[in-house]
Amino acid sequence: MSLLRYLVPNIHQYRRIAPRYLLLILAISAVFSTLYYAWLRSDEVLFLTDADFFWPPETPEIWAERAAQVKEAFRHAYRGYEQHAFPHDELLPVSNGSTDNFNGWGVTSVDSLDTMLLMGLEDEYARALPVISQTNFSLPSNNHVPFFETVIRYLGGLLAAYAISGDDLLRDKADELATKLASAFNTTSGFPVYAVDTYNGKNLASRSGVLAEIASFQIEYAYLGKITGKKEHVDRATLVTNLLYNATLDRFGGMYPTAWNLDTGAPSDSHLTVGALADSGHEYTLKQFLMTARTDKRNLEMYIRFTSYVINNLLFLTPERHLLYVTDAQMWKRGITSSHYFQHLACFFPGLLALGVHLLPLNHLDAFGINVTALADDFSPADRYAYAKLAEFDLADVHLWAAEGLAQTCYLTYADQPTGLGPEIVQMDVNETGAIQWIDALRTWKADRDGRSPPGVGDMKPWTSPLHENVTVEQLIPAGRRKGDPDTFGRDYLIRNTGYYLRPETVESFYILWRTTGDVKWRHRGWDVFQAIERYTKTDSGYTSVMGVHTAHPTPMNAMPSYFLAETLKYLYLLFLDEDPLPLNSWVFNTEAHALPVFAWSAQEREAYGIV
């Protein structure tokens, strides 16, 4: 196509060429053009290879310098927090104020402890300990502590810092906090409630909960039980594992829905997603299996079931660029609908898949007594057929392709913007004839791969606005999806939330993919993200979330979440280090990036705790 487009407007330059040769050139060009369009209209695009991209020469010194820059970014952010907000929860980095939005126990300092230790910031760590030692984890009566956020930020932060430092104070404070939270489990089913009053030991009575909040504490409580020898902590983790494993999920194809009834312990809606309100509940199935030395077959089965459902039903390709994305599903009596929203929060998922490929024998699960096809025996005929389609491939290959394709889309939502920062939510385009399910495109590709990479996998250049000079940002950010919405001008998505909230999920996946595949592009993409953070979110006292990533001048939001120091900067730092201080086969990150060591239960512990 490019040759023909060049020849026709410049044909006057070829007047001295014999007509038959000119006709031959044009005929060859026409043939190539026809073949190009025929190929483009198929369900697969031949993406650019690494050879089409130039990666600057990397040396250990370059990456060490980049890690040092991330460390300095952490010091800048924490210094601002200490000067303007400590011992309150979070810094307001534009107004230089503070907020107590997570119990008022200094969440930024606790959330940052293990990052400080990894970076060798001993002075900052030493200054945080006295305040932590004096915290009694109470609020005035009738004020409630959110269980989920308290576990992942405070309990996880204390446990990870203990695991790295060996400081008994941190273990003891973690035990004290977990004891204060015990009333959360006073429900008929045993699932924890949303919040508790740590002053009088009562919980905020509720009959419903969401997956992320009721099933994202198992690894913290299991490790706490290991280091304290207290059976009650282990029992709580075990109970929820039992509830999830024994739940009736036939109509959901083995996938865990978002909402659950805390009385019955059963699902209470039909919404399926790996995004908000559910994400970490799915994440912990794999991570609990890995942390306990790969001995709990139930968690492995749950992980295989949920990932199989996602691959078969929730992965799609966009019509033009063939971006691979994961979305949600709402099940109705007459079928399933999807919003085709792609959330930044879901960008943890490619990293989880890559971790599983790296550490699980996905093509030899019979070693654990698992027959993948048999996992669907009690499912509907449609779900059994979906498992049969998946069985046409090596499971490890499919998981890795999905990981790489999804992570690329996460990156492109950053790189497509003038700021280089990724929006919170985008809505992907769908063909007039219907959405392209990835598993079906994968089967078509397998039948005639012809040297091409799998659909949605392979390097792709960002969408560039100079190619679309007449496009305004207003056209790309409509108020709502309605008839007459504008075209996406080849970008294949509309932005539904233009905010960048300093989130970690994308760089988390880059870090895991770099460590598991050794492909340097993930480091370079992480470096792109870090430079954008420095350019557009840095303030005099820290870093701020921003709105308007699609513009050249995003608006500061005056918020620096504690997870920016606990997760985002930690993953970037680990991404740029040559030697990983937390090898993935020896450590497991909780959903707040707090690293807990892999351990095995002794025979005595198994008997004492009733561990299967």
Automatic annotation (TrEMBL):
Amino-acid positions noted as binding Ca(2+) in the UniProt annotation, renumbered to this chain: 591
Catalytic reaction equation(s): N(4)-(alpha-D-Man-(1->2)-alpha-D-Man-(1->2)-alpha-D-Man-(1->3)-[alpha-D-Man-(1->2)-alpha-D-Man-(1->3)-[alpha-D-Man-(1->2)-alpha-D-Man-(1->6)]-alpha-D-Man-(1->6)]-beta-D-Man-(1->4)-beta-D-GlcNAc-(1->4)-beta-D-GlcNAc)-L-asparaginyl-[protein] (N-glucan mannose isomer 9A1,2,3B1,2,3) + 4 H2O = N(4)-(alpha-D-Man-(1->3)-[alpha-D-Man-(1->3)-[alpha-D-Man-(1->6)]-alpha-D-Man-(1->6)]-beta-D-Man-(1->4)-beta-D-GlcNAc-(1->4)-beta-D-GlcNAc)-L-asparaginyl-[protein] (N-glucan mannose isomer 5A1,2) + 4 beta-D-mannose; N(4)-(alpha-D-Man-(1->2)-alpha-D-Man-(1->2)-alpha-D-Man-(1->3)-[alpha-D-Man-(1->3)-[alpha-D-Man-(1->2)-alpha-D-Man-(1->6)]-alpha-D-Man-(1->6)]-beta-D-Man-(1->4)-beta-D-GlcNAc-(1->4)-beta-D-GlcNAc)-L-asparaginyl-[protein] (N-glucan mannose isomer 8A1,2,3B1,3) + 3 H2O = N(4)-(alpha-D-Man-(1->3)-[alpha-D-Man-(1->3)-[alpha-D-Man-(1->6)]-alpha-D-Man-(1->6)]-beta-D-Man-(1->4)-beta-D-GlcNAc-(1->4)-beta-D-GlcNAc)-L-asparaginyl-[protein] (N-glucan mannose isomer 5A1,2) + 3 beta-D-mannose
Pathway: Protein modification; protein glycosylation
Catalytic class of the enzyme: hydrolase
Residues at the catalytic site: 149, 279, 424, 505
One GO biological process term: ERAD pathway
SS bonds (residue pairs): 347-410
Cofactor dependence: Ca(2+)
Protein name, as recorded: alpha-1,2-Mannosidase
